[in-house]
Amino acid sequence: MSNPVRILHRHDFQHLLNALASRGYRIVGPTVRDGAIVYDEIHAASDLPEGWTDRQDGGTYRLERRNDAALFGYAVGPHSWKKFLFPPRTRLWQADRQPQGFLLRPEPLDAVPYAFLGVRSCELHAIAVQDKVFMDTDPHYRAHRERAFLIAVNCGQAGGTCFCVSMKTGPRAESGFDLVLTEILEDGRHAFTVEAGSERGRDVLQMLPTEEAGTVDLEASARCTERAVRQMGRSMDVKGVPELLARNLEHPRWDEVASRCLACANCTMACPTCFCSTVEDTTDLTGDHAERWRSWDSCFTMDFSHVHGGSVRTSTKARYRQWLTHKLSTWHDQFGTSGCVGCGRCITWCPVAIDLTQEVAAIRDSEGARGNDR
């Protein structure tokens, strides 16, 4: 049974936040801080980035004022939702010395019930990717994920580094949400179409002062995402990419990109699907108390690939190749999908503007040229 589409007017938007708060959710959404649109706890509609947009390109991110009062008139910022579902640092257990030995106390799974507001379609796909990695293996992730309420927002504007159309991950959200909004700003009207994607979503929707969406509203909603499709700043030919990269592990392009790469790990920190981590055991000076912590790690760090005898990826070339081929090739072998959702964060937040869409295209073009020479 299809869910009816409703209309929520801008002046009633606070009712959505109130409904979520009344159900005990800690609301996290976009807000302006430190010259960027980031995800943080919000309490009122006034906390949202009203009238702001972002301009993104390789190694470039700038906020600019819009000529309207859009609440979601931007692409994506440096944060992804993984920082809440898979936090950068998590204590796994504590242990205290007792007369008979050590008493180990696992960290409680008292996950915060988050409501994520403003989740883009590419980010829904990223969460689905991390679900495949963590849901059956990590009780901490599962505890956060099962309690999370997802309010998606269909994109009305693409960023200069977006290529979700190529990856078939957006810009319109099709599933994986509790509620989905589309912001309509036409002819002086400011409203949102709202549709439920789950029973929890339907329960919240019933609490809101909405009205049934008409044909004009549905057409305006469709135009919103059609604009985003036309605005894609990047594209990638994904046909045969896993096989393409597997055939070209010694391609000279890897040396070229390594000459620019700083191995700073910005791309993996900003990526919404990267999941590498490390574990650290600590103890106090007395030796009576110990803790185990898990922290984000990256395949760009030298220690990440360290085994007995040393690191197996000592060069920047090897580490970048590992990252890109895992993301676009061997991820398919592990999880049955690409590890890239086309959000473009790795391009925007790379200090030297390395662009994975350009790297794939360069390898494909050179392989085609070699074929023509034969």
Q: How are the strands ordered across the major sheet? A: 3-2-8-9-10-11-1-12
What is the arithmetic mean of pLDDT?
Answer: 94
The dominant shape is globular
In whole angstroms, how far apart are the ends? 57 Å
- Note the run of SSEs as H and E: EHEEEEHEEEHHEHEEHEHHHHEEEEHHH
| Beta strand count | 16
List the uncertain runs. none
Please report which band the strand proportion falls in: under 5%, 5-15%, 15-25%, 25-35%, 35-45% or over 45%.
Answer: 25-35%
Number of helices: 13
The class by helix and strand makeup works out as alpha+beta
How helix-rich are the residues, as a percent range?
25-40%
Total domain modules? 2
Largest sheet: 8 strands, mixed
What Rg is obtained from the alpha carbons, in whole angstroms? 23 Å
Offer a few descriptive terms.
374 residues; 2 domains; 8-stranded mixed β-sheet; single chain; globular; 33% helix; 13 helices; alpha+beta; 4-stranded antiparallel β-sheet
